[in-house]
Amino acid sequence: MGADLRVVGGTLATAQGTIEAGFAVEDGTIVAIGDEQHLPNAEHTLDVAGNMVLPGVVDPHVHINGFNSIDTYETGTAAAARGGVTTVINFAWQTWTGERERDADGSVWADSGSLLDAIDRQRESASEAYVDYGLHATVTAEDRTVFDEFEAVVEAGVPSFKFFTVYDVGVSNGFLRLAFERLADLDAVAVLHTEDDSVCQALTAERRRTDRGHPTDYPGSRPDYAEAMALSDAVSLATETDCKYYGIHTTSRAAVDELATAREDGTRVRGETCPHFTTLTEDAYAEQGTMALQSPPLRTADDVEAMFESLRDGTLDVVSTDHVASTQAEKTVENWWDCPFGVNSLQTALPVFHDEAINRRGLPYSFLVRVLSRNPAQTFGLPQKGRLAVGADADFVVFDPSETYEISATDNASLADYSIYDGREVTGKVRETYLRGRLVADDTGVVGSPRGEYLARDVPTWDPQGGMA
Ligand SMILES: [Zn+2]
């Protein structure tokens, strides 16, 4: 009996280092790794000489089919496949009415809602996914009856729960305290967007009152200390209740200092940042205007350094995209406060972050694999994802580390018709992306029909010390 596919001639990147080896795939799973002559025979052989082979990127923070994103599963996951991303974790919004924020006259939130229903609605919308997807349950109303669903949500393969401390979906510290206790009983993960709501609201109102609508006036309305204040509160509550804590889109030195302090206690605290917080500063608001507007804001050059220091020392574990798709027309507004938050980067995150981390900063491929693939898979209960190893899903990227090209938004698979990386020259290009051993995208676009599947995730096991570096 032979395998289905042999991948030979390339350099494999793992969380430990790089090796000159090939591997064999059977029924979508990696069944052998080693020298070409020791691999089992296979029906097909793919020679990837001159290229790196990376595990598919696992992106645990994307907005597809949401109130804030025009991407459907088809277009959002096409962008993912083009960008070497083979797993995404999207959000199921408890009280979302299904309206788009920019189109709706009133609120896009109902007064109450069921997490299980929201999960079902997302799964029903996802038949055209090109890559595999999981979901986070997103609690968007301060209504304790939602706690009754937590156990069934975990059993449905959704062991992570998202909360906001800001916006009209934000909840109070008291509510978080009660929720975290229940999540701790289930060993589930609390996923937090932390900014101090009253500080952000007051500073936003002051800018509106004094007519400071230029995009360069935006970052001061959501300052680093507001991020750190709310993070400190939420992580304290997680520590008290022994609940796993995952902080999303960390932007600032002030915030990672709070995370580092919490981690020193041996508590179960992890965090992510995003490619834009590692490659851009608030100067982008002068250069790109509202196109670069997202929340929390881009910060200073020192904050960018803090992101890399934290990713290297293990204070932060993951780089996610926080992909949000809007049109250029929607983003083009007179005053920044009328601009929808969010930027799209599912298609560009790997080449942009690779160029920054490997080419500009001299970091090893093992670092790239850890923060883009292994750590997010391990953090969110996906043992079969994020690694090139026997028994893992054969999700991989054929990546040419030497080709230099210019990123252009005209090539977007996402419905977003702009890119904050438009015109950026990077070295290193996604050649082909494979999902469970089958080609899903190459240089020209997605290939074949959508085969992405829903991932019912395990409750993840976290090392109590947190360190995965
Ligand atoms: Zn987000």
From TrEMBL:
Q: A Pfam family matched by this chain, by name?
A: Amidohydro_1
Alphabetically sorted, this entry's keywords are:
Phosphoprotein
Looking up Gene3D superfamilies in the UniProt record yields: Metal-dependent hydrolases, Urease, subunit C, domain 1
The upper taxonomy is: Archaea, Methanobacteriati, Methanobacteriota, Stenosarchaea group, Halobacteria
In terms of PANTHER family, this protein maps to: COLLAPSIN RESPONSE MEDIATOR PROTEIN (PTHR11647:SF1), HYDRANTOINASE/DIHYDROPYRIMIDINASE FAMILY MEMBER (PTHR11647)
**Keyword flag Manganese:** no
- Gene Ontology MF annotations: hydrolase activity, acting on carbon-nitrogen (but not peptide) bonds, in cyclic amides
| InterPro entries the record matches | Amidohydro-rel, Metal-dep_hydrolase_composite, Metal_Hydrolase, Metallo-dep_Hydrolases_sf
- Taxonomically, which superkingdom? Archaea
Amidohydrolase-related domain location is 52-440
Q: Name the species this protein comes from.
A: Haloarcula mannanilytica
Q: Which family does it belong to?
A: Belongs to the metallo-dependent hydrolases superfamily. Hydantoinase/dihydropyrimidinase family.
Cofactor(s) needed by this chain: Zn(2+)
**What's an example GO cellular component term for this entry?**
cytosol
User: By what name is this protein known?
Assistant: Dihydropyrimidinase
